[in-house]
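Why does residue order matter? Because the sequence determines the fold. Keep that principle in mind as you read this record.
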Amino acid sequence: MRISRLRLLGFKSFVEPMELVIEPGLTGVVGPNGCGKSNLLEALRWVMGETSHKSMRAAAMDDVIFSGTSTRPQRASAEVTMFLDNTDRQAPAEYNGSDVLEITRRIERDAGSAYRINGREVRARDVKVLFEDAATGARSPALVRQGQIGEIVNAKPEQRRRILEDAAGIAGLHTRRHEAELRLKAAEGNMERLSDVLGQLQSQAESLKRQARQARRYKDISGEIRSAEALLLHLSWQEAQTSVATEEHNLTDAMARLGTATEAESKAFNDEVRLAESLPPLRQAEAEKAAILARFKIEQDNLDREAERAASRSKELEARVKQLETDIARETGFITEAKDTLVRLDADLAAIHEAESNAVVEEDNARKDVAAAEEKRIATDAHFAEITHKAADARAKLRSLETALGERKDIVQRITKQLLTLDTQIREITEKAPDAERIAAVSERGHELAQEITEIEAQAVAAEEASKTAQMDARARRDDAARVRLAANAFSTERETIAKLLAPANDGDFPPVVDDIRISPGYETALGAALGDDLEAPITPEASIHWRRMEVSIEDQALPADAEPLVMHAEAPPELARRLRQIGVVARADGARLQPHLKPGQRLVSREGDLWRWDGFVAAADGVTPAAQRLAHKNRLLELDRKAAEVLAAAKETIDAERAAADIATKADAEERRLRQLWREKQTELAQIRQQLTVMEKSARESETRLAAVAAQRGRADEDLTAAQARHVEIEAHIVTMSQGEDLEPQLKAAQADAEAARKRVAEARVALGGIERDRQIRAERIRHANAEITRWKGRQASAEDQLTNLQGRLAKPRPSLRHLPACRRRSPPSAKRCFLNFRASRPNVRMRPMH
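Structure:
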């Protein structure tokens, strides 16, 4: 297939219909920037099924529709049509019947796209597969856009696979395989779901079986329960009947006892009324005495509680006196202790101040000792660092040389192994390199196949021309035969219709005589007007109404001279012969004139259907009767049979010619398909040969490249081995030279001992100084603590003296109450109450609990 034309309408900048003709060879579009050259490539990709609006340089797919300018309105749709030349019949089978394929994609705003192939709507997938089978498509590398060459050069191998698949023409197979895989996965999913459903149905069946068993058991048990319940109800009914009889007897006895009890109740009620009249005075006396008794009891309870509270108050005052005496003794002890502690703290503070004055001199001497020791340490550390640095440099150089020596040994061994591996690779590459003779043989076979394909293609072209000629001839013959068949079918259809009309309504009735009459064309209406309904009567004697043959010796009267007997134009059974001889056919204008000349039984008719009878009866033509129509149909049926025979006889040659042309076209088409199939097979074989040759040449080139690379790598390895061996000898010489140099270890040990001794002396001096400083800090803390203790104890002494004065004042208050309360408790309740009241009045400041 080859693109021959591209038609655009409303696509991007192509607002007017535009058609781009792509002739064989090279077709180019030249123009300045912004003229729409890239829009043509995008139109090709769009009609091939591109779905990404970004690839169309648009924010949405609707942006490919012409959006309008200041002078032109926007369009509502866009359409691109691609014309493919399919004369080689390379398209899929469903589209391979046309020489040109029209692939159209149309988009409307907010409505999406629609695809058509040769005017028939298809899916986007069908268009995609069509172009993939042709080794192209919207994403095909064959459509080169800006920057695509750089992408292909920098692409990864898996990304270049698309190019190779397009070149091999298998991109459509991948799409079909993907669809098949999706269908298989869907089928597998359906199978799994079916298995799950079967499992569920089996479990449901088992559950239903269990439920059925339970239902049967429930039914049986329910029957037993109903029987038992019926028996129980019967027994209960019998027991209830017995209980009813018993209770009725008991009710009779209870009613008798109720009468007796009612009588006794009335007597008791009379006694109660009599006694109730004497009860109120007694209740009044009882209430007064009860009130007096209650007041005495309340007064006694109040006095008892007041005595208890007085005793409790006495105990409370005694406890308070003891507590106050205890507090006074404690505060007196605090004052004595504070005075002793203050004397002791004054002595300790004087001793601390004396020790602090002596510690100042000791701290100055200790600081001088620390400075001298520090100077000695700095000098010894500098000497030790110098010796250590020299020894470390020597050891580091020696270790570096030893490490480098080991690395060089490893490098020499690695390069030696690498040389052995490269030699092995050179031998393998040489052995696996393809044979030049085989490559030449495959190339020669490819040339032969190319020549055969050229010859087959020429034969196929000739066969195609012959097939086209035969098909054109066959189509012409087929059209002629179709016209002949159409005419025959028209005759056959009309004949079948008339035959159905002439078919008897009921096969079991007697056939009417009209079916046995043959009338000349044009006389059907005259016969129908002359006989009328008599034509429906049969000639069968068994019928109640029928025509009977009459043998009459007397000669019938002759018709008027201008009348033509109707029997001359009809073939009828003998039963109608006499009737038909007495019917004359005349012109319409002569009927009234000849009617007076008719003899009894005679009648005249016109071909239009007018009737004149001998007795003066006249009937004008009022249409065609059913019998006349039936006779006309029979005549038409005979005429159709005659014409159909003539048409079929004339069409036999045309049909034979059509069959012969069809056979020739079929053979030519078969020969063309055979040659095309042979051409495709040779093409496939040639492609395989070329692929094999390409693989062999590629293998040869790869072998040469790999051999050159391995040889170059081996040369570099030889150079690296020589350099590594020379460096190995040099490092060994350096190690020997350093081993014979000056030994710095004794000097390092002596310097290290001096430095450690100096550090020890510095540490000892700092320890001594730190001890003196800590002692001074401790003494300062003790002085601060002693001053705080002196202040605290002085405050505590003053507080204790104040508390002692307060406690002595509080102790003087409860003593009089405590002496007076025991005398009141020893009296009788009335006198005790009065004593407590007098005491409370004379001692208003003494707090006591109230008496209730």
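The chain has a mean pLDDT of 77.
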